[in-house]
Amino acid sequence: MTDPAPESIGSHILREKVTIEKMISYYCKRKHKTSGAGLCEECTDLLAYAHGRLDNCRFGDEKPTCRNCPVHCYKPSMRDIIRNVMRFSGPRMMIRSPIEWIRHSLHEHSPGYTQKS
Ligand SMILES: [Zn+2]
């Protein structure tokens, strides 16, 4: 009862959502020179789309990461964009153990990071 077991709250889907949000945010800041906590319009749309896809992901908790997912549920135009984002942000952000990184990011509530989705 003292151990809240974050895994039970943070499903794969939730973790993916956090990851994708971080990736898009990183990409937007670097590529689109967005400042502050917000994203540009394009990236806001992309994030909403990505989160929507995760909500509808047929794998649920069995889900592999989107990068390795056998089902390409993104529509082609969005797939191109998200691929760019992952290619850009992925290696830079996941150079260390992705699990550790994701755990860390889940527990970290840095100021300016918008928690509401
Ligand atoms: Zn952007």
Q: Could you please describe the fold and organization of this structure?
A:
The protein is mainly α and 117 residues long. The protein has one domain. The protein contains five helices and no strands. The chain has helices at 6-9, 12-31, 41-55, 76-93, 98-107. Helix 2 (12-31) crosses helix 4. It is globular, with a radius of gyration of 14 Å. The model is unreliable at 1-10 and 112-117 (pLDDT under 50). Zinc ion (ZN) binds at residues 28, 32, 34, 39-40, 42-43.
Average pLDDT, rounded to a whole number, is 74
Strand content: under 5%
Total of helices: 5
The total count of strands amounts to 0
In terms of quaternary structure, the protein is: single chain
Report the order of strands and helices: HHHHH
Shape: globular
Report the structural category: mainly alpha
Bound small molecules, which ones? zinc ion
Q: Detail the poorly predicted runs.
A: 1-10, 112-117
Number of domains: 1
**Termini Cα gap:** 29 Å
Specify Rg, calculated over alpha carbons: 14 Å
Helix content: 55-70%
Question: What can be said about the biggest beta sheet?
Answer: none
Topology record:
Elements: H1 6-9, H2 12-31, H3 41-55, H4 76-93, H5 98-107
The chain binds zinc ion.
Summarize the structure.
The chain has 117 residues and is an all-alpha fold. It has five helices and no strands.
Can you tag this structure with a few keywords?
117 residues; disordered N terminus; mainly alpha; disordered C terminus
